[in-house]
Structures are given as C-alpha cells and as structure tokens.
User: Fold this.
Amino acid sequence: MQLTALAIFPLAGYLIGSISTAIIVCKAMRLPDPRSEGSGNPGATNVLRVGGKTAAAITLIGDALKGFIPVFIASKLGASPMIIGLTAVAAVLGHLFPLFFQFKGGKGVATSLGAIFGIAWLVGLLTVTTWLALSLTFRISSLAALGSLLILPLYLWIITKSPTLVVCGVVIAVLVFIRHKANIARLLKGKEPKIGQKK
Assistant:
C-alpha cells in the first residue's frame, strides 16, 4: 500500500494544489484578473486589494482547503509520516507552480497552513495563532506569513516528534520564503505595503 500511496497521495496533492482559487473566484465574481492587477499574485492578499473582503475570504478558504484535503485524507487512510509530509509539500508546490495555469501560481501561505492542519491540527492552530498575532501587530501580510512559517519546524517537532515531518516543514518554509524574495527585499527597505493597502 505504501509504495502505491507514495505516488498517489503526493500526485493528488499536487493536482489539487494546482487549482487556482484566486483566478476562479475573480472570474466567477467578475473581478479583475489577480495576475494582472495589484501585485500580480494570484492569492488572497492580492484578491483583497483588487476585489474586496468577500472574494479574499473565499480565496483564503479555498487555498487552505487545497492543502488540507489531500493531507488529511492521506493521514486518515494510514499513510506514513513520509507520505503525509510529501503530500503536504506537493500541495504547496501545486499552488506555487500550478499545472493548470502555466506553472505561475501564488506564494503558498494559505495552502501551507491548510496542509499543516492536515498534518496535525494543534500545529496548525499554533501556526495560525502566530500568523494572526504578527498580522495584528505589524499589519504586514508577508511578515506575518514568513514569521509563522519560520517557527513551523519547531512546532512540528514539539507536537509530532517526527524528524520526517520536521524536514517537510522546513522544505515548505523554504519554498514560501523563496517565493517571497521580493517581499523580503521590500521589508528590508521598509517599503512593504500593509494589509489592504494598494500597491
């Protein structure tokens, strides 16, 4: 079962992750394409800029579910920590490099959080709490995301004690940090926009 799962669950995670919630929501609500407006990023923060709170909330939930569903199913079906972790990484990769949208995706924060909840709900709760605390304190979406994912491996170790899941958490954090390199540059210059602010 594990050999089959090694291929099926991560593949399913990648394909589900490849569904761009932002683009679908904006098209369904007749809003500007998030790839050509605002920051150009098909994610919840940019949808908030170009389409408002309702569209952003739907996008956020959809992106989180993309990470949660395949990982949760893999966990419930008895997959090993390695397969669960690989499925989480694959879902995030699907969001970052979506097969259905020319491999040009978002930055992976909501999908990462959803996948983390699929791995262990308490780790997800701790990570989201950290994200919320940083968001309310600094009002900068990218800073909150990066800060919460930076501490993710520690949360995974404390709760799961699984070296495999910790490594997968590190991989997810590194992927998200790489996708935020422009944000990091703006943060260092003090030019990163606050939540809801137009770019």
In short: Residues 53-76 form the longest helix (24 residues). Residues 2 and 69 are 19 Å apart (CA to CA). Residues 2-189 form one domain. DSSP finds eleven helices and no strands in the chain.
